[in-house]
Amino acid sequence: MPCLFSAFSFMASYARAPAQTSSVEELKKLQRQSFDIVSGGLDIDEVDPIQAMGLYKRGITIMRQAVRMNFGPNETEARLIQDKMQQNMEQIEDRCRTIEERVASRKPIGTVNALSFPVTHGRPSSQIIAPPTYVAGAIPSKYEKSMENLKSIPQSVVQATNASTELKKKAAFEKLKTMDPKIRDIILNEVVMDNPGIGWDHISGLESAKQALQEAAVLPLLRPDIFRGLRSPARGVLLFGPPGNGKTFLARCMASECDAVFFGISASSLTSKWVGDSEKLVRCLFTAARNLQPAIVFIDEIDSILGERSTQENESSRRLKTEFLVQFDGVNTSDSDQVVVIGATNRPQDLDEAVRRRLVKRIYVPLPDTEARLSIIKNLLSKESNIDIKADQMKQLARRTNGYSGSDLAALCKNAALEPVRELGASIKNMPLDQLRPINYEDFNHAIKKSKPSVSAESVEAFEEWEKQFGSTKKDKKLVAYARNRTAVVGATIQSTTPILRKLVRSRLRHL
Ligand SMILES: Nc1ncnc2c1ncn2[C@@H]1O[C@H](COP(=O)(O)OP(=O)(O)OP(=O)(O)O)[C@@H](O)[C@H]1O
Ligand SMILES: [Mg+2]
């Protein structure tokens, strides 16, 4: 356990030579010290938040020294550490402010949940502090409560992750110096995706797909020390299922929810936009992913580049496939590699066998069930303020739309929303907006006649058959609950900050 004395000695040494270039080792030492001290605060926050605050403040002092250290322009690792420490420091300061305010106003202090800070990558602690007391029956379950926190990703988090991706990109720029500059620019500017700000709960239903993705990609990135050896996760994931049901949406959500660099590439753009260069692009893409790991490489419409090889296909497409297979194996050589490849397709049966073998985890993304349809409809309608549809009518709609995909439902709601406008005829030109009548159930009755489901029963059967033969949808609710709640040491109560969560939190700090 580091002591105050050593913290002060560091501060003193810093004070002596503030303008000199510092060493990364020194920075890491301060990082460790602040970690230990803040950890001490964590331990006692539940029972004595005021004393914990003392420790947090000591931690903050050391962190402040660390973020002020000077580094040369090439010390990208140091700048990454400083950036993370800065974010963490702000959150600990936030927690201290909360404790101080609550003490001043004599309110209960609330839970230690602020200390989800290291795993939330900058999520503001207003999202993090749970209400101080629960009234039995009146408050949603802990799990539901924590899920509420995941409903939307606050802008500040989006900005924080984007800023961190920017930093990583800069670091990558150095590492990828030897790469063809044109390709490197394409990868860093067009392929590396920014945080789209979509949370798991923007996706209705698809619980098992979400769970499987988290098990394959989120948890192993969170706890690489556990997921090694025999427990090493699947490095290749395939999302398959009928069109319009959220495969691409799920992947975009991963880009928001994972603290990994997300490379998103569509097979059609790979073959058309960079024709001739596509093989090189794949090579560079994987090199960049290795250099920037933890990373996720997402290939949409994967069947169109990695379909079954045949004697008729042209030379360049065959070379592209071979390159992909070689690169895929290349990123999976070491246990410590943290590159996950995710492919999405609505034609899994067209995939080359060698590719299928590499995408070990094959997750079925089916048509939404009644509950998911209800949630999609509710979500879509929540965007409109002028609605006159009762709860039981919504349920009825959900039942009546059996066989509709997510995007079919979107089309249906759009159609229904246009009904009040269609009635206006020529008067649309000068009709004040507030006089437009609300969308009602009758509008859906009309719309349903025009918007039919796009996926046939036969194709659903074919998907189910393929899923039986090659699919893998494995659940481990307990593990996944931890991953989903990583924001959410969050909505949980004091008692729920279990040792395993603490370990997660701490490991996250260690892996800064
Ligand atoms: N489960 C869902 N929850 C919320 N929205 C959904 C869901 N499924 C689909 N959608 C909506 O449908 C749109 C289309 O989904 P998406 O593009 O992810 O489909 P896809 O499975 O990738 O289809 P394709 O196979 O044609 O590429 C999404 O942008 C989203 O608005
Ligand atoms: Mg798609």
UniProtKB/TrEMBL annotation:
GO cellular component, one term: microtubule
Keywords: ATP-binding, Isomerase, Membrane, Microtubule, Nucleotide-binding
Enzyme class, UniProt record, top EC level: isomerase
The organism's place on the tree of life at top rank: Eukaryota
SMART domains documented for this protein: AAA
Catalyzed reactions: n ATP + n H2O + a microtubule = n ADP + n phosphate + (n+1) alpha/beta tubulin heterodimers
InterPro entries according to UniProt: AAA+_ATPase, AAA_lid_3, ATPase_AAA_core, ATPase_AAA_CS, MT-severing_AAA_ATPase, P-loop_NTPase, Spast_Vps4_C
UniProt-listed Enzyme Commission number(s): 5.6.1.1
Gene3D superfamilies per UniProt: 1.10.8.60, P-loop containing nucleotide triphosphate hydrolases, Phosphotransferase system, lactose/cellobiose-type IIA subunit
Gene Ontology molecular function: ATP binding; ATP hydrolysis activity; microtubule severing ATPase activity
UniProt key word Cell division: no
Residue span(s) of domain AAA+ ATPase: 233-369
Family, similarity comment: Belongs to the AAA ATPase family.
Cited PANTHER family: AAA DOMAIN-CONTAINING (PTHR23074), SPASTIN (PTHR23074:SF86)
Protein name, per record: microtubule-severing ATPase
